[in-house]
Amino acid sequence: EESERRAPQRSPLPRRRQRRGPGSGGPGNRQQGDSSPARWEARPPRHMSPDRRSSSSSSSSPMGSGASKTDARQRRTANSRSASASSSASEPGNFRDFVLSRLPEGCSPEEAMEKYQEHERRAKQRRDARAARAAERARVAAEQKAEEWRRKAEQAVGKVQGLSVFFDMYHPLSHLRTYDLRLRAAHHQAEAFVQDMAKGCFQGLAFYAQDANGERVVLSPASGLGEKPHFVLDPDVNTVLLRGVRPTVSVWDIYDAAAECPGFLTLSWTDPTGCDFLRDVRLRFASAEAAGQALQQIAGEAVLSAGAALAQPASNHAGLMLPPEMSHPDRVRKDEELAATILRQLDAVTGVPPETTRAVLDAEGTTVQKLDLSILYLRRVHHFCFYGAAWCRDAWELRQRCGPLLVRDPVAEPPVEGEWAEKHDWRLRKFASTITLERPRVLGCDDEPVATKCEELVGTLTLRIAEGRFKCGECQKLFKGPEYVRKHVRKAHAHLLEKLRQEAHADAARAAFVEESSSIGGMKLEIEVA
Predict the structure, then answer these.
(1) How many angstroms separate the CA atoms of 382 and 391, rounded?
(2) Residue 408: exposure state from Cβ atoms within 10 A (0-12, 13-18, ≥19)
(3) Per-residue burial over 329-341, b = 16 or more CB atoms within 10 Å of its CB, e = otherwise
(4) Residue 303: Cβ-neighbour burial (10 angstroms; 0-12, 13-18, 19+)
(5) Would you say the C-alpha torsion 213, 216, 221, 222 has a positive or negative sign?
(6) Is 439 exposed, middle or buried (0-12, 13-18, 19+ CB in 10 A)?
(7) What is the pTM of this model?
(8) Distance between CA 376 and CA 364 in Å, rounded?
(9) pLDDT in tens, 511-530
(10) Are 217 and 211 in contact, with CB atoms under 8 Å apart?
(11) Separation between Cα atoms, residue 243 and residue 246, nearest integer Å
């Protein structure tokens, strides 16, 4: 009993193994032949703060105080972040939790409400500050990513600016020709539509489902003007397809060659695909004979380097059937008014003569017949899908985005308007309020920045050789005053001013490419840039 009472009491705390050096003494040093276990150093209690625990462990670390302090600082930072996150997560979510966890006993209701409101105000400030920091980090990251893409676009523009595909997509003169082509096509289609109306070609028009199979509607094959009741016009009818047009060939070179063929109507082209920037070009003609003659003529053009063939129209067309609510008489009446409004606006922005617009809208018939005639006019003339509220560039894009057409459900008792009809009405009214088709801006010698460069060039070419005697620096012709030299340069050396205008257009094309390609995924001409 006496020996047990004198024996040292072992600490209840866990001990850490501390290996001592070979020259250190003490009971913790294991000597040769000593089978006693090594001593365990007491660990700091678990309830100690992270700072004290780190300082305790760093004092006995064999790595020295510098590394231990660095590790301790990193642990304190991580612990503080986790503590702040846990504190924000453990904040009381309502007044009851706040009173039970934050207020002492005996607190009056007025004081409790005042403190809770102050707590809510500070919590909101903390949430707003965290949201602002997150938004700032996202903004900085987005700016860095945009700058990276802008750098890639600026490097890529030097590799593609000499290609014809670059001119077709970004040059202001190409945009102007595209605008003029769209207007000419609308005028021609509107005139042809009115002529077909006068001939009675659209008798039996009705956009109702005939052969329904679930939500798919099987339509009749398209030939010529299409067949009733839907008069679906396939854009591939009487069309020459050029596959794999090289990027060194401009679509306007193809247009100029096709314009010499009889019966040519319009053309369309796809965006470049792959690293070779190949495109497909479609040329549409008034008849099958005209398309065949054009195929023989265009196929002999070696510069195209494309596979030319007649496009194959689809054997049948499948559209979609609208919800039954779109067949309600009240909905049909509203759609007839909306279709007439959009038809007037599109005719106005494309320059269709007003008498053509009145001929379509003043046609005799029921409300359903007037609506269907307006829908057909919008599709054929303006490539506009009424029920999809989509205004497309050409008939091929309309078919790709919206299909051949959408038809109504011939239900006997259609339901009243629902969610689909409300969204349809909102889409059309929004489109009607934003219809615009502006003519692309082409720079002239009097427009900036061309005007300033022209004045600088004229000033450089105006040389004063004596009092009241000036000469042109380009052709050495003499004049009495500088104003005569200015007129002479603008008239006799207009090619020098035209060169400045072309350089300004090239700068605008490069800027458009960089602006479009600066967004993630916005580069249509895929260029490998380191």
Answers:
(1) 7
(2) buried
(3) eebbebbbebbbe
(4) exposed
(5) positive
(6) exposed
(7) 0.70
(8) 15
(9) 888 888 776 555 555 554 43
(10) yes
(11) 9
